[in-house]
């Protein structure tokens, strides 16, 4: 054995020597050929490494649910699909897979067996994120009894939002956002998005924040303020907002000259905070939104929206009356953004306004309320933002009562993943009471939280 | 009748003549995340593709706004090429989801992660946490700044274009062979130009220079950022100044999207030159393709060392 190896060794080293002796004049050409060969081998190695990386983050072809007649240990699905598209990647979780991840095992025998012992299986876990939202408040809270705006307590772990997000299959993705407050858990959003529908349609099914205006769609941690504007609180259900179970269909519409035009139609069960209440199955609520967007320059853009929502309200339940009591909401929003691309991480400006009209049928007479906010936020450093907001809003149930307010904010980002914000808020309630409050908020983000739509 | 027949024959003849023209006039719409991927796609796609990049060359590719106007590009795309390694994780996923275009969804035939073709450096080993800053757990995503990776990515794109448009597959391969030859010749020139500066020490603002430095044998000894994505701090800046003095580092390279205040103060404290280098095609108006990117940067670095 040893002698054989030595023989091979001698042969391997002698052949090139012999070759050199026989082709001595062409050494340069040989060197070039060898170099080329080494480069080719290097390229092949790098290509292989790339394939390994892709395979590590690629979901295997889904196992076919075993039919009853098939043996329990059915062979995995054909790997042909994976071979046909070797570059299929899935955004992997940014953090290491959770140790000790429990397996989900089929109990009925018909469901696929998720998880497993291999680390590759954990690559299929959804992206997991937690966002903490801590709020402190000081100052007088001279809130009248009928006011919609509820004061913050002195110190509060306002919300812990858990996000679970993943691509479900080649046709859809799933997003779940669970909000853990101090008193309980709320499914803030949980929906499937069908991304591969024909005709350019995108559909969502589940529980979601409705597309009424701008602020209603925003999660707490992406708001430019600690609180929500008065008009949002008085007319659109405040923090909970129009957030309901149903389905949504949106599509980009053809438009001239680089204008982005998008229409959204949504149907919900009809239960949203104190805005809509469904007493019957037929009391569904509807929301429609039309959005127009245009880049004015590469740094500046204008975003306009029109919204409509309709649903049944709680007037019937409150008054014991008979008949349908409907609330209709009309909204218009405008956002002007500026962000110079060469210095995008240092400076930006967002000016925004939303106007909302509410028509609430109730006993004895329909209430027609109006409200709006106007805000401006300027980023004056990589970590610093300042902003202001003016609020004006009638109350939806008492359109003769108008609250007004103003707020100023200062925000500091230690990094992309944490944020400290202070806000001074002045509110003049319709009952002629004033309140001056200081709010402090700390937001911190763990894990891979998917980016929110623009 | 006779006239009608003639008209009929003329129409058929026109149809026969025009059809191949019309058929070949159908170009693939390629959208790329960055200008560098667009430049490489253009090299191999030639006149058979329309290519548009989402991020500009002078923009920080980590922080691009997911503007709805990009959806107008994406919804028409036959192929989306991304840099990958989570470079675009903060802005591209919602665009893909909202595009309403099944062809470019992650995993579909029209989605190409170019990182799979490239040699990736600085893949973190062991536990990755954000105490390390905005670290990329899958490796350094600025891989296109090594011309060898440019060649590999171009080859991968040519293969993908051929899969989507088999009729033009030979054309794409031919274009790649031509690109390969031109790149090899350019590389010899660049290598020769950079040879006198082999082993020279540099500091960069962000960790985007690794692949370039490795290819051209430069030594990156530190960064203006204390951690990737974390703004400079006074203590780190003082440390860096000390390090540069000890190591006799004479050059600070800054990406075009970073503020020059801290680099300039480092420059005046150490006597090092502070230069704005281009990590991407289109960083300056005159840099319109992959070759000009290296021409520009090598010229700049040569001047910096002189």
Question: Strands, helices and their partners?
Answer:
The complex is a heterodimer of chains A (454) and B (306).
Chain A: H1 2-22, H2 27-56, H3 80-84, H4 119-122, E1 127-139, E2 155-169, E3 172-180, E4 185-194, E5 201-209, H5 230-235, E6 243-253, E7 260-268, E8 285-295, E9 300-312, H6 315-319, E10 326-338, E11 348-360, E12 367-379, E13 384-394, E14 402-415, E15 418-428, E16 434-447
Antiparallel strand pairs in A: 1-2, 1-16, 2-3, 3-4, 4-5, 5-6, 6-7, 7-8, 8-9, 9-10, 10-11, 11-12, 12-13, 13-14, 14-15, 15-16
Chain B: H1 2-25, E1 28-32, H2 35-45, E2 49-53, H3 68-74, E3 79-82, H4 92-98, E4 111-113, H5 147-164, H6 169-194, E5 201-204, H7 210-215, E6 219-223, H8 234-247, E7 251-254, H9 261-270, E8 273-276, H10 290-305
Parallel strand pairs in B: 1-2, 1-3, 3-4, 5-6, 5-7, 7-8
Mean pLDDT of chain A: 82
How is the quaternary structure best described? heterodimer
Globally, the shape of chain B reads globular
Regions of chain A with pLDDT < 50 over 5+ consecutive residues? 1-22, 60-118
CATH topology of the largest domain in chain B: Rossmann fold
As laid out across the biggest beta sheet of chain A, the strand order is 1-2-3-4-5-6-7-8-9-10-11-12-13-14-15-16
The total beta strand count of chain B reads: 8
CATH architecture of one domain in chain A: Beta Barrel
Summarize the largest interface: chains and residue counts.
A-B, 63 and 59 residues
The side-by-side strand order for the widest beta sheet of chain B comes to 2-1-3-4
* CATH-scheme architecture of the largest domain in chain B: 3-Layer(aba) Sandwich
CATH class of the largest domain in chain B: Alpha Beta
Residues in helix, % of chain B: 40-55%
Quote the average pLDDT of chain B: 90
Largest beta-sheet characterization of chain B: 4 strands, parallel
Estimate nothing, just give the exact number of structural domains of chain B.
2
Question: Count of helices of chain A?
Answer: 6
Number of strands of chain A: 16
Largest sheet of chain A: 16 strands, antiparallel, barrel
The Cα radius of gyration of chain B reads 23 Å
Low-confidence stretches of chain B: 15-24
